[in-house]
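Holo model, 2-phosphoglycolic acid. Inputs:
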Amino acid sequence: MEKEKLEEIIRQVISNMQKKSLIVAGNWKMNMTVREGMAFLQELGEIGEDDKVILFPPYTTMAVLAEEFAKRRIVFGPQNFHEQDSGAFTGEISLPMIRELGCSCLLAGHSERRSYYGETDTSINAKVRKALREGFQVMICIGEQLVERQSGRWREVLENQLTRDLQGIPRAQLSKLYIAYEPIWAIGTGITASVDEIADTHACLKRRMNAYLGQELPILYGGSVNEKNAQQIGKIVEVDGFLIGGASLKADSFKKIIEVCRQ
Ligand code: PGA
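Output:
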């Protein structure tokens, strides 16, 4: 039997042995008014007790619907935040403001924040360290450009992002972190990375974590995940969940993905 086939079978067997429910995180980006958010929740209906659902809504929708999320056991938090508690930072939002709403998990370093708003690994690291000190969970996004994937530089790019974003984080706080691997070329394009690319990349990142941190952090895959491809990607052993943009805006799609993740 070919080596790759054998490896795939072994992966599947391990996957079946380790059955776990996957984390389903939705990034609403600059979408969903309060009214739309409420309609979404009504259509979504009940969330199972063992489902692990996280939402990153816009600030306004999050503030008004905080109780509705909490009632449904949906973990929620902002798509961005500032590392200072208060001050002259026009347009920013701080952790005390977020805490008041009952947020527990924050998103950091999304590729759109990096490319449109100049966020760097250094600024992301500062935010993440502050949020962890304050007791929040944080989901850090990393991802490579298409040219970096095609040239084979993706390994180096991702390992650098990971190492820089995690620099100086005390061991005791690592259990509050998630990594979302989102190839930039797959975000909002309808193109997902292949099963082999995802398995390979997540395995590579987990090796790097073992070497650098002495432990593995959960890694979610993001980039054009939808109700049609979630099952196949969810079977990859190294995938611990999804970070979903477009398909998290439609209650029926999101619900189907949650069902697929209930393994
Ligand atoms: P997408 O977005 O699912 O629409 O590709 C993912 C993301 O940006 O987090």
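Strands lie at 23-27, 52-56, 75-76, 105-108, 137-142, 177-181, 219-222, 241-244. Residues 195-213 form the longest helix (19 residues).
Archived with the compound record.
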